[in-house]
Amino acid sequence: MKSHRSFKNAIYQQLARLGKATASPKRLELLDLLSQAPRTVESLAKESNQTIANASRHLQVLRGARLLEADKRGLFVTYRLADDGVADFFRSLRLLAESRLAEIERVTREYVTDRDTMEAVDRQALLERVKRGEVVVLDVRPMEEYRAGHIPGARSIPLAELESRLGEIPLDREVVAYCRGPYCLFAVEAVERLRAHGFKAVRLEDSLADWRAHGMEVQT
């Protein structure tokens, strides 16, 4: 029979594989992006400001730790999270870091909070207001992410199309914009543009993973 120490060493060695795989800012960003929707290597490289070669290497490390799966269709490889547990893992890591690292609050305050775009939103109350036609919820992420999952009743107007589609948004209703979560600035920019055009707009900080974690419905 193997010793208890051998057993513990073997277990912690396997746990450390996840730590090594995620010990990279770029790999964490890739996990965050893939929490929104499956994507090709090319798309992930563009979104994370990397070369395709570097993004591919990071993705292979994450896949080696069984955090991702990949499908090849023709010349393109599409990556996806292995399961919802990976999204939960990333969200738990994010929340732990926010609670322990003051630097995150400082950086967030400099880039987001000082812009006065966030609002504490009761999720169930928001859905009720959408049903009553009192508020418009805008999903300003790319369309592929909206299709993979979105807040019930949300309208898809990607940030790149916002200026040309302002006529679709009622001026007499409050607008709540959201994107990929607290570290995504699409919604921040969307709120600034909407306010410049006379809309009453605020940013919802939640990601879809936050929405699911609170037991709220997600439409696809």
How does this model look, in words?
It is a single chain. By secondary structure, this protein is of the alpha/beta class. Strands 5-4-6-7 form a four-stranded parallel sheet, with helices on both faces. A three-stranded antiparallel sheet has the order 1-3-2. The longest helix is centred in the N-terminal third of the chain and has 18 residues. The mean pLDDT is about 90.
Number of helices: 10
Major sheet details: 4 strands, parallel
| Strand adjacency order, main sheet | 5-4-6-7
Helix content: 40-55%
User: Whole-number radius of gyration?
Assistant: 19 Å
Q: What distance lies between the first and last C-alpha atoms, to the nearest angstrom? A: 51 Å
CATH class of the largest domain: Alpha Beta
Query: Any guess at the CATH architecture of the largest domain?
Result: 3-Layer(aba) Sandwich
Number of strands: 7
| Beta-strand residue fraction | 5-15%
